Amino acid sequence: MSEAIPLPAAAIPAARRPSTRWRAAFANGGMRVLAILLFLAIWTAVSLGNAYVWKFFNPILLPSPLAVLKAGIDLAESGELQRDIFASLSRVLQGFAIAAIAGVAVGLAVGTWRPLEKLVEPMIELLRPIPPLAFLPMMVLWFGIGETSKIVFIAYAAFFPVFTTTVEGIKHVDPVLLRAAASLGATRTELFRYVVLPAALPGIITGLRLGFGLSFFVIVAAEFIAADSGLGYLINDARTFFMVSNMLLGAVVIGLIGFLFNILLRAAENWLLRWRQTGRS
Amino acid sequence: MDGNVVTTAKIRIRGVSKRFGDAVALQDVGLDLAPNSFTCLLGPSGCGKSTLLNMIAGFAEPSAGQVLVDGQPVHGPSADRGVVFQEYALFPWRTALDNVAFGPMLRGRSRAEQREIGRRYLALVGLAGHEDKYPGNLSGGMKQRVAIARALANDPSVLLMDEPFGALDAQTREVLQEELLAIWERHRKTVVFVTHSISESIFLADRIVVMATRPGAVKEVIDLDLPRPRDRSDPAFTALERRIKELVRAEVQKLGVT
């Protein structure tokens, strides 16, 4: 078997050898930390420089990173920060869960059944270009200012990317794979379960990740309009009292949560799609 | 004479035509293939050889005529007719072992039996030790070995191969031809093998069906009695090669692309 001759170590790309890989990862991580430190340094310099040297604008408009950190500690001590994080996360998770289930289910149905596709596709194509935010005031009217309106709003916004990528994933299943499975004795149901679903999975996962990002994107806007808790509320409430540190803190916390969830989702994706990691070994 | 053929034919193709809209892909094809025979459908692209194979596989229905396997008309694919595709068609999300075990899994074999069958057939195609690799980590030749093992693991009585070695380099191709013959000699199947390589068809087949173009049809059926293993430099081999080359060239010229 000519294909199976083991490669000499020198032929393995450097990035794949364990020691070099760790060094590369460390160097990469070091660069990232450095970039963040540089950003914080510039921020501090502009903020403090303005407050004490140039007096270019009102220093209250741009607090230093330390002031934001202090605001965070204060809000955490009062329990307000945790309450707002929990409120936003709970809305996002509920809304996103509905969007994920509905988007995948409707997407699978539309992708496999042609008549339904003809019926549903035009409606979706009409609604999709409308920014979900345009419907937010109406949702508040329909579902009140409580949790329901926000959850429905997130579910609505996140539905579209999940739905579209699911339909696309199903439509682009390689027909030769279906033939191969059929010639091995697969029934229609088995074709769906063992070929269509796994083939569409990468698309579905991309849609879920997009949908989750969008959920975070819209929850803040929803909490600006009508809410008495949540990170969007924290920002908007701080605005009315001109507490810029708190406003910045809200934004930073949203950024950190998004960052953490993205890492989690990427890890889940890599595990589910581990067969995609190609490269001869 | 006809009565004799009826009782022994594994695959009977009777007056089969296939049209795609106005285009006639195949016209009035009649063939009887004996059980456990090795038949090559040979011709340039556009002669309808893959169309004919697809109708035997059940992926397409003839516009006229009938394809019979074991005396039963073919309507749709079946686990008793294994297919090997030029583009391998492995499930990229299943390991080599799980690809091979796909057929046994569909037939409700236990997980242990699936693994046992998978290992056995991977070993048969020389891939023992590669069970846990995903297709993305296999070379073209190894992928086609997995695909052949996957088709054989169902133990079909008919094996249909659509230019299976067409995408491989010349060396890998010859090795796989030899291994395919070795497997076929041990596990007898009725093989229908589509190719456009004259030398490949002479090396492999009991019978070569040279196809005509415009419209696709059977031009000539050649029964081979060269002993195996066949030597590609043997005078009888090269003489036959020259003769078939003439036949095929005439068909290529009909296409107007020379």
Provide the fold topology.
The complex is a heterodimer of chains A (281) and B (258).
Chain A (H helix, E strand, L loop, with lengths): L17 H37 L10 H14 L1 H33 L1 H14 L8 H8 L3 H25 L3 H9 L4 H38 L5 H10 L3 H29 L9
Chain B lengths: L1 H7 L2 E10 L2 E11 L4 E5 L6 H9 L6 E6 L2 E2 L7 E4 L11 H5 L1 H5 L4 H14 L15 H13 L5 E5 L7 H17 L3 E6 L2 H7 L2 E6 L4 E7 L11 H20 L4
Parallel strand pairs in B: 3-8, 3-9, 6-7, 7-8
Antiparallel strand pairs in B: 1-2, 1-4, 4-5, 9-10
Helix pairs in contact in B: 5-6, 8-9
Class of secondary structure makeup of chain B: alpha/beta
| SS elements, strand count of chain A | 0
Rounded to an integer in angstroms, the radius of gyration calculated over CA atoms of chain A is 25 Å
Topology-level CATH name of one domain in chain B: Rossmann fold
CATH class of the largest domain in chain A: Mainly Alpha
List keywords for this structure.
heterodimer; A: mainly alpha; MetI-like fold; 2 domains; 10 helices; 0% strand; B: 258 residues; alpha/beta; Rossmann fold; six-stranded mixed beta sheet; four-stranded antiparallel beta sheet; 10 strands; globular; disordered N terminus; ATP binding (chain B); nucleotide-binding (chain B); transport (chain B)
Walk me through this protein's architecture.
The complex is a heterodimer of chains A (281) and B (258). The longest helix of chain A has 38 residues. Chain A is mainly alpha-helical and 281 residues long. Chain B has a domain of 133 residues: 3-Layer(aba) Sandwich (Rossmann fold). Helix content of chain B is 38%, strand content 24%. In chain B, helix 7 links the parallel strand 7 and strand 8. The N terminus of chain B is likely disordered. At the A-B interface, helix 7 and helix 8 of A face strand 6, helix 4, helix 6 and helix 7 of B.
